[in-house]
Amino acid sequence: AAILWLVSARHAIYGIWTFSIPGLYGTPLAAQAQFWLFAAFALAFAVKVPLVPFHTWLPDAHVEAPTAGSVLLAGVLLKMGVYGYLRLAVPLFPQGAAVFAPWLAGLGVLGIIYGSLVAWTQHDMKKLVAYSSVAHLGLVMLGIMAFEPAAVAGAVLQMVNHGLSTGALFLLVGILYERRHTRLIEDYGGLAKSMPLFSTVFMIVTLSSIGLPGLNGFVGEALVLFGSFRVYPWLAGTAVAGVILSAVYMLGMYQAVVFGPLRHTENKLLPDLSAREWLYLAPLLLFIVFIGVRPNPFIKLTMPAVDSYIRMAARRTAPVLPDIMLSVGRGEAK
């Protein structure tokens, strides 16, 4: 409905019907119109990200989905919500974005803390990783709502990093489920001896998820935190606590699964990674390490889009709507 209203507004001013996104950029809208239109877009995208308190669908979706579905959801589909803010909501309605940005950044930080605390209490590995996604995407939202080059670049890179690390985590959980048909952390333990290759890969992916320097997660997190600190120092400082919590619950899961006591004899006989499993994990590991060591090529790829986003977000003033546009908005145009 908000898109249709915007298209109608542009037609009333210029006499042209278009759904072209670049064509819709710069449509002169009054501040009040931008406020309500941004609110409509932001609400829809908040569900997709998902931001707390619109996140409740995500853990259940991951638990019910097969491994491939969870990988696709984490690697691609969750990013559509953030993409909506980057591509549509903020560039189309910069004045509305200026009003809502601190609140959306605050919801992002709330998601970091809440997602981390709830993940800490989980016994189901898939649910734990799902709540970690809420925390990671909260950090991404903090970055893009700071409208600061380093923070936005870090947020875009972190979207890629989240897809790699969380996608790999879901694959690893799926590998264990195929062997034991359980995702409960307490059903495992002692895998370091029976599955040494799996345990090594699991360690690398876990460390990348918590942002260890030298792996992909560190660069994006550092850019977001340093960049957003210049705009929202209290929010960025609070987000650091969430990053620390992520290390607590991720390392806790790893320790219990890999080095925990061997309570179930079935774990002694679990086969290690097969050639097929190694084949689809190896590319993810390659990018996890390469981005951590050489992030500059990936950051440079994003900078034109980042600069464009910040330029459009910086348009804090806009012409006042003609009277006919207010009529279109109320449905009174003849």
How helical, in percent, are the residues? over 70%
- How do the SSEs run, as a string of H and E? HHHHHHHHHHHHHHHH
Q: What's the gyration radius in Å?
A: 22 Å
Number of strands: 0
Average pLDDT rating: 86
Shape: elongated
Q: Can you summarize the main beta sheet?
A: none
Helix/strand class: mainly alpha
How many distinct domains?
1
- Beta-strand fraction estimate: under 5%
The helix count comes to: 16
Distance between the termini: 19 Å
pLDDT below 50 for ≥5 consecutive residues: which ranges? 317-334
Fold and architecture overview:
- This protein has 334 residues and is mostly helical.
- It has one domain.
- The protein is 75% helix and 0% strand.
- It contains 16 helices and no strands.
- The protein has helices at residues 2-14, 21-24, 31-48, 57-64, 67-77, 79-92, 94-120, 125-144, 149-180, 191-194, 196-209, 216-229, 233-259, 275-293, 296-313, 323-330.
- The model is unreliable at 317-334 (pLDDT under 50).
How would you briefly describe this protein structure?
The protein is built from 16 helices and no strands.
Features:
334 residues; disordered C terminus; 0% strand
Topology:
Blueprint: H1 2-14, H2 21-24, H3 31-48, H4 57-64, H5 67-77, H6 79-92, H7 94-120, H8 125-144, H9 149-180, H10 191-194, H11 196-209, H12 216-229, H13 233-259, H14 275-293, H15 296-313, H16 323-330
Helix pairs in contact: 1-16, 3-6, 3-7, 4-8, 5-9, 6-7, 6-8, 7-8, 7-13, 8-9, 8-12, 8-13, 9-11, 9-12, 9-14, 9-15, 11-13, 12-13, 12-14
